[in-house]
Amino acid sequence: MAKKAITCTVNGKKREYFIDVRESLLDMLRGNAGLDSVKHGCDVGECGACTVLINGLPFNSCIYLAIWADGKEIMTLEGLSDVKGTISDIQQAFIDEGAVQCGFCTPGFIMSSIPIINKENPSTREEIRRQISGNLCRCTGYEKIVDAIEKTQKKRIAEKKETV
Amino acid sequence: MYDFNTLYEPNTVEEALALKKVHPEALLLAGGSDILIKLREGKLAGCDIISIYMLDELRGVSIQDNGELIIRPLTSFTGITMDPLIKQHVPVLGDAVDQIGGPQIRNIGTIGGNICNGVTSADSATTLKAYDAILELSSADGVRNLPYAEFNLGPGKVDLKPEEILTAIRIPKESWDQTCGHYIKYAKRKAMDIATLGCSVNVKLTKDKKHIERLRIAFGVAAPTPIRALTAEKAANGHAVDAHLLDIITANVEADVRPRTSWRASKEFRLHLVKELARRATVASIEKAGGTIHG
Lengths: 164, 295
Fold this sequence. Notes:
A: alpha+beta; 2 domains; five-stranded mixed sheet; 5 helices; 34% helix; B: Uridine Diphospho-n-acetylenolpyruvylglucosamine Reductase, domain 2; five-stranded antiparallel sheet; globular
């Protein structure tokens, strides 16, 4: 089968991967890049467990050809920690609020929440729910997840105001 | 790993058209949110694929000097909703595609893929039908412009020849100018669901805003393909903006629909939705156009 070399930025670092053209981005990120936060869930774009950011927007990596990642910026949960491995505020908020039970959906939810927590103005809980509507959680009932996102967004908006 | 055979990656539309001429049986892959899923289900095992997703020349919205809107087919649903020209001239289209799937699906799904699949539930289809969109279908041998009204041949069947690619969706100025529309998607859930019934209405009022100059109604899932309710439109055109207008629409709107019973809803419930959604979308369109319904 046809193989192809692609170059993309993964979690801030430029990488080259030699891939089978039939691979999904999910296959590439787990198999070639060893990024296991990208969860292999439904495989058909329904559960959101494999959500990653591509050029800043959330995508289901299970229904995305790996070859399309050529030249793009990919961000996975691993990219949220700093160089020492300290986790980010949104990850800490998920822990503090009890937004994690079995944890399988968590990386996908956190990646979907990145565009929300970086917004200039506070979102309503309804808006937050809409932004995470492509992610399924079977344990938490979503309330704690919305709490964690809302709390982090408020914190980031307050921090921005302080620095201005 | 997806179970396809050969993958072709054209770098230009010209190359894509040349490939389609040599390999007419190969499937065109736009965003993949239908085809890649069918591949997972094993329905398309062993097929050949021409991936056009990377062709940026088929992406974006522009406006011609004569006011015609040109929507390139690979524009994502998010791209449609966020586009300044769509927001300004056909905001109802942005609202309609913002109700598809969830955020991830709206980032990958394309408007061209949505209509070329030819399913009756396509959320972009009803509004494009209601705006008399024109489809630019290109092949290596030339271009033909087909009214979208003639494109759907049956469930999942469209008038796209094996060697053709949809290269633009056009909305003439006459069609959007001073026209306000509203789309209602009735579904079991607010996200990640397809419509039980969809209704897109748009209206152009007379200068004094007292009469209907032109009213257009389109439905999804009310027939095997997305359709227009021409009988009700004809009855409404020229009518005064009043409560009687709404009665006329609900009385005539059933004439052109052929809903069926499915696991989502019964035929009877869909007929009820046809009337109720047409009425509500008409009221909302008239209000957006600055009209008031008296009596």
